[in-house]
Design goal:
The chain is mostly helical. It has one domain (4-314). It has helices at residues 4-18, 27-45, 49-78, 80-93, 97-112, 116-124, 136-165, 167-183, 195-222, 227-237, 247-257, 286-314; strands at 261-262, 265-267, 270-272, 276-277. Helix 7 (136-165) crosses helix 11 (247-257) and helix 9 crosses helix 12 (286-314).
């Protein structure tokens, strides 16, 4: 833990430059494989779906934590520098600053080329709603929402757990996040089995989401956004999303940009009504996607800086 500031800083810089290169043996892909492999095992072994899902989630998360801890600690017996390098690599895989930018820019470039089908397809890669009938304004709003929401689970949360409990805990968080994305649905198949995974994701993101309420408005200010409006938007609209966490970064982003996000959408074949988030001051334009990415980059830098200050002067 004494090197966590160095580890997190190097991992952050590595992510900024390298992102998530194709072919890289990403641990999240391994976690996803294990989820697919062991889901039927737990379903078969335990008849009660909620209990089976809870045991399954604890198995995946605790297994990820223990495996990460063993990798780092055992390598430390061989060479401390090796342990440092492996810690940086593991921590790097928990961050998604550059990959979030890349996905957002794909949508922006498609809109710039006035290719709505391509924009819808690119958007579908980062949202769970049906994008096939979305108009231009809806695509822009959804892209900004996704960028804002993923700032928490792709940047702030892993940094929070790394700075407070070490790299293995950041990896455990990624397991929680991956579980939620794969089994945390409210459909017939996963309503009970994925219940624990979804609630665990809510719990793990609770504090990081509220940290975003402080640093995202400040990041927006550095990007020529409206600081006061962003802060007030968090208080006015932060609880408008059905998720206990997602509405906070979305409201901060909406306030900074002066656009209205949220609203209903089609999820898994049925329309889900949702409240709007933010004031409808500006019509969303594709350049707002670029500005949201700028805000994310400043937010990520502030999150790293906050973590370093926390480790240096508080812990």
């Amino acid at each position: 833990m004494e090197n966590i500031a160095i580890i997190a800083g190097l991992a952050y810089l590595l992510d900024l430059f390298a992102g998530d290169p194709l072919g890289f043996p990403h641990p999240v892909r391994l976690i996803g494989f294990l989820i697919e492999r062991f889901e039927p095992v737990f379903r078969k072994a335990v008849k009660n779906k909620k209990i089976a899902g809870a045991l399954f989630a604890l198995f995946i998360v605790s297994g990820t934590y223990i495996a990460s801890l063993l990798i780092i600690s055992s390598s430390g017996f061989i060479n401390k520098k090796l342990a440092l390098v492996l810690s940086v690599i593991l921590m790097y895989t928990t961050l998604s600053v550059k990959s979030l930018k890349i996905e957002a820019l794909k949508i922006y470039q498609a809109l710039k080329a006035e290719d709505l089908p391509a924009a819808r397809k690119n958007l579908s890669m980062i949202v769970s709603r049906d994008t096939s009938q979305m108009d231009k304004d809806s695509i822009i709003r959804a892209a900004i929402e996704s960028v804002a929401e993923n700032t928490v689970d792709g940047i702030i949360a892993p940094l929070f757990f790394a700075f407070t409990a070490g790299v293995p805990m950041a990896m455990a968080f990624k397991a929680v996040s991956t579980l939620d994305s794969m089994v945390g649905y409210k459909n017939e198949k996963y309503r009970d089995f994925g219940f624990f995974s979804a609630k665990m994701d809510d719990l793990f993101n609770y504090i990081p989401a509220r940290i975003s309420a402080f640093i995202m408005p400040l990041a927006g200010f550095f990007c020529a956004g409206d600081l006061k409006r962003s802060v007030s938007s968090v208080f006015l609209f932060g609880n408008k999303n059905p998720s206990p966490n997602s509405g906070i970064p979305e409201a901060a982003m909406a306030g900074a940009l002066g656009v209205r996000l949220g609203g209903g959408g089609i999820y898994h074949g049925r329309f889900i009504e949702k409240d709007f988030i933010g004031e409808d001051l500006n019509r969303p334009v594709k350049e707002h996607i670029l500005k949201s990415v700028d805000i994310v980059y400043i937010t990520s830098a502030l999150a790293v800086l906050t973590g370093i200050i926390f480790r240096r002067f508080i812990v």
